[in-house]
Design goal:
Blueprint (H helix, E strand, L loop, with lengths): L6 E5 L13 E5 L16 E3 L5 E7 L2 E6 L17 E4 L4 E7 L6 H8 L6 E6 L4 E5 L4 E6 L6 E5 L7 E6 L3 E6 L7 E5 L5 E6 L5 E6 L5 E5 L5 E4 L10 E7 L6 E7 L2 E8 L4 E8 L11
Keywords: Repeat, Ubl conjugation pathway, WD repeat
GO biological process, one term: protein polyubiquitination
Pfam families: WD40
Amino acid sequence: MSKRAAVDYQSVKHVPSAPESPLLLELKTRRPPSLLDLAGCETWSVDFSPDGAWFAWSMGHGIVWVVAWPLDSEEGQDGETDRGDKSFSCGHPVWGLAFGPRPPKSARLAKTASKGKNILLLATGLENGVIKIWNVLTGSAVFDLHGHEGVVRDLVFPQKGSLTLISSSRDKTLRIWDLAHKGKKVQVLSGHKDWISCCSVSSDCSMIASVGRFDRMVCLWSLRSYTFIRNLMGGNQKQLCLLSSCDFSPDGAVLATAAFSGSSWWIDLWDPYTAEKLATLAYVCCMIESSCST
C-alpha cells in the first residue's frame, strides 16, 4: 500500500516571526486541480499512534493517510512490519480520528496489555455518523460502528489499554463503545443541548469531559458509572461565545477549555473536582483553532 508519491513532504526552514515554535515539516497532498478549494478537502483531525511510530491525518475527500514516523523510517523493530504509507478510503468526509488502544501509564501493565497482540487500530469518525475501525498494520477494515445520527466530531481511546472508544457527535450525544464486542455493547451519554465539539478523558480514566459548541456547556461524566457529574459553566453563563475544545492535564488535576467570540480567544482552566475556575488565559491576536474546533 505504499503510495508515497501522492503526498509531498516539505522540510521548512526556521520561521523568524515565531522562533519559539519553528515549523519543521509540512505535508501536502497532490490533488487533481478539479478538487482544489472545494468543500470536503479540509483536514479536520490528526493523531500520533501510542508508540509514536505512525502519524495519521484526514487529508480530505474521505481519505485518511497514515505515514511511518519519523518519515525516513522504513521498517518496524521486528523487521517484518510494513512501514510504507497507507491510505484508507472512508467514503465520506472524516472529521475525527484516533489510534488505539492506548496502553496504561504503568510500563509493566503496558507490556502485559500488548503482549502477543500485533494490532494497531485506527478509528475514523465520518460525516454520516458512522465510525470505521481499521487495522493499520494490515490496511484492512475491521468493522463499522452505527448509532450516531450526526457528524462524529471527536474520538478518544482512554489510556488504560482496553478496547474502549469514546465518540462525540453533532447529534448531541457521546457514546462509549466496547470494541472487544465489535461495538455491540454501547453506553449513550445525553445532556448536551447542541453539537458536541470535543471530548477528553482524564489520565486515571475515571472522568470524561465534553464541550458543546453552541450550548456553552462544559460537562463532566463518570466513565465508571456512565452518569452525568456536573456542568462547569453552570446555568448563568451570559457571555456569548463558542466552545471549541477541551483537554485534561497529564495528572488529571486541571481541565482546560478553549472558547472564542469574534476575534477574541481564551482558555479557561478548571478544577474538575470542585468546579472552581482557576484561571483564564486570554489571546486576541491570532486566529488559531484546535483540531476539535468545528
